[in-house]
Design goal:
Layout lengths: L5 H25 L3 E8 L12 E8 L4 H19 L6 H10 L6 H7 L4 H13 L1 H14 L3
Antiparallel strand pairs: 1-2
Helix pairs in contact: 1-2, 1-6, 2-4, 2-5, 3-5
Length: 148
């Protein structure tokens, strides 16, 4: 079995974390909130345990609630799905992936998202698609700041 180049794995992980945090921040800013995304290498990552090699956090002020919170929380994971898997993915497909466990939210994103359904996923997908160039620009800035 051929193993993946650790440098390539790290760059792919960095890219996904950068897009995830950039999407949170971009959608938060779209709603008029202040948002500061940060990413950093995970010093305790163990590749064989499939831990992320990079970590991230988006600090938002004021703390969002309701519909805005759901949109911000969903945007992070949706950005990864659109980047990595399928830019044309529909909200129904996202629901199926969630039910099958192919998409997993972090504890903090899950808590922020609250209860959501098809309508919220459709709205969040529209937001992410509409803000994609801004998400890309911010993700690039985050990767450059990380030294990659």
């Amino acid at each position: 079995m051929k193993s993946l180049d650790p440098g390539r794995v790290s760059k792919l992980d960095l890219e996904q974390v950068a897009y995830h945090e950039a999407a949170h921040a971009t959608v938060a800013r779209h709603f008029g909130l202040s948002a500061w995304p940060v990413i950093w290498p995970n010093p305790s990552s163990l590749e064989w345990k499939r831990e992320r090699l990079w970590r991230g956090q988006c600090y938002i002020d004021p703390h969002p609630s309701g519909r805005e919170a759901s949109m911000i929380a969903l945007a992070g994971e949706l950005a990864i799905v659109l980047l990595r898997d399928d830019p044309g993915m529909t909200a129904r497909e996202v629901i199926t992936w969630l039910e099958d466990g192919a998409i997993e939210f972090s504890e903090s994103d899950s808590s922020l998202a609250g209860d959501f359904g098809l309508a919220e996923i459709e709205e969040a997908l529209c937001l992410v698609h509409g803000l994609w160039s801004e998400i890309e620009d911010l993700a690039r800035e985050l990767r450059e700041a990380a030294g990659e």
